[in-house]
Amino acid sequence: MPYISGVDLPLLRSTFAVVERRAEHAVTYFYSHLFWRNPGVRELFPENMVPQRDRLFAALTHVVTRLDDPALPGYLERLGRDHRKFLATPALYAAVGESLLAAFAHAAGSTWTVEAEKSWSEAYGLVADLMLRGADESAAAGEPAWWDADVVGHERHGDDLAVLTLRPRRPYPFLPGQYAGVSSLRVPRVWRTYSLGNAPREDGTLELHVSRIRGGAMSTALVAGVRPGETLRLSAAGGAAVAATAPGGLRTYICAGTGWAPVKALLEEAAGADPEAEGRIFAVARSREYLYGREELDALAARLPGLSVTYITSAPRHPRDQATERLLTALRACGRWPDHDVHLAGPPGFLTEVSEVLAELGADPARTRHDVLPRVGRFTTRPASRAEWLLEPPAVHWHDPAARAPGAF
Ligand SMILES: NC(=O)C1=CN([C@@H]2O[C@H](COP(=O)(O)OP(=O)(O)OC[C@H]3O[C@@H](n4cnc5c(N)ncnc54)[C@H](O)[C@@H]3O)[C@@H](O)[C@H]2O)C=CC1
């Protein structure tokens, strides 16, 4: 049963299938319409609109393919709560709805009937209402739209890596293994997610581990620009890769690059709550110079003597991904995979490759935990038909705020 009554779901999906095939065209029309009709709105969006364009259709696809999913209202309420950081007002939701329908009408051509328009208008209204309800509830609970956090430490590890220490100005609730949206005035209105690199501390400080991405404005600003004394913004912590292994349970932690950050947080938690923990840790980096967390990992391993530690890097002058091959060889030599919880963090390609091999080795996919990471998609790589979406629904670029940290704000 669709949870949205009065909306013709098959009609909604068939018009969306037509619009999706002309996605690039529809998105260009949508933003032109939105900015032309609402001149003040352009400045709410980042300067670089290219990633934004993919995000719009990824989000729409997520909603359209799940209109009959009972989990959708909760998802939309959390999304609305998260959108407070974009300063999304009821007027903006209304303007977006108007431009979306105009763009759909334009892209759908003769398939855009009065009935289709009515169904889309009703469906958008319901989506916007649920998102606004989530935003209102979070504001009524006293949750800020974002947390200001002062940079109190900035440690460089070579040209491409930095560990930032932040002190939020008000209590920031999170669980070990979660991530936060981060924004800097150096790159206005852009938000990127980074894992929090520590378990909650008494002094409230947080670590962000940042690897500079070629051409990435935010990662470059955080690694090479930001200095102590500056202020960053954090959105509410989210992420589902947080369930700690029950005391006494076997576990394997595998991290690559700055995927060390959430694993470090989980290990800090285990060192406090479960020092007898048994299992293994694999820390992977493209070269020895990129193993920036070695001292901390050795110190944590000393507090967790039941966990073996293996460092793996590519051989000198070998490609970055040789480290993954070496890791997979090491994982194949390990036993008892069905008995282990596996905590994984690292680049998306790494997660895909390692998860597949772990499943072949007998690890339980339900006990293999990692964040849902965005696929870097362009229109050209988007599935072309509804059948393809069903086989391989595109991942949503917005982070999944499903597992927010509990607590007072
Ligand atoms: N919560 C999480 O899961 C976190 C994920 N990350 C992700 O990690 C990445 C950071 O990258 P860096 O620290 O620069 O790591 P990196 O680019 O130096 O990669 C580290 C290692 O991962 C493996 N790897 C990388 N790309 C691969 C691919 N496509 N296929 C197979 N193996 C691959 C290689 O062995 C490489 O040596 C970002 O993509 C970020 O999104 C970062 C922090 C937390």
Automatic annotation (TrEMBL):
<dbReference type="InterPro" id="IPR000971">
    <property type="entry name" value="Globin"/>
</dbReference>
<keyword id="KW-0408">Iron</keyword>
<comment type="similarity">
    <text>In the C-terminal section; belongs to the flavoprotein pyridine nucleotide cytochrome reductase family.</text>
</comment>
<keyword id="KW-0001">2Fe-2S</keyword>
<protein>
    <recommendedName>
        <fullName>nitric oxide dioxygenase</fullName>
        <ecNumber>1.14.12.17</ecNumber>
    </recommendedName>
</protein>
<dbReference type="InterPro" id="IPR008333">
    <property type="entry name" value="Cbr1-like_FAD-bd_dom"/>
</dbReference>
<feature type="domain" description="FAD-binding FR-type">
    <location>
        <begin position="144"/>
        <end position="254"/>
    </location>
</feature>
<keyword id="KW-0561">Oxygen transport</keyword>
<feature type="domain" description="Globin">
    <location>
        <begin position="3"/>
        <end position="136"/>
    </location>
</feature>
<dbReference type="Pfam" id="PF00970">
    <property type="entry name" value="FAD_binding_6"/>
</dbReference>
<dbReference type="Pfam" id="PF00042">
    <property type="entry name" value="Globin"/>
</dbReference>
<dbReference type="InterPro" id="IPR017938">
    <property type="entry name" value="Riboflavin_synthase-like_b-brl"/>
</dbReference>
<dbReference type="Pfam" id="PF00175">
    <property type="entry name" value="NAD_binding_1"/>
</dbReference>
<keyword id="KW-0349">Heme</keyword>
<keyword id="KW-0411">Iron-sulfur</keyword>
<keyword id="KW-0479">Metal-binding</keyword>
<keyword id="KW-0521">NADP</keyword>
<dbReference type="InterPro" id="IPR017927">
    <property type="entry name" value="FAD-bd_FR_type"/>
</dbReference>
<dbReference type="InterPro" id="IPR001433">
    <property type="entry name" value="OxRdtase_FAD/NAD-bd"/>
</dbReference>
<dbReference type="InterPro" id="IPR050415">
    <property type="entry name" value="MRET"/>
</dbReference>
<comment type="similarity">
    <text>Belongs to the globin family.</text>
</comment>
<keyword id="KW-0520">NAD</keyword>
<dbReference type="InterPro" id="IPR012292">
    <property type="entry name" value="Globin/Proto"/>
</dbReference>
<keyword id="KW-0813">Transport</keyword>
<dbReference type="InterPro" id="IPR039261">
    <property type="entry name" value="FNR_nucleotide-bd"/>
</dbReference>
<dbReference type="InterPro" id="IPR009050">
    <property type="entry name" value="Globin-like_sf"/>
</dbReference>
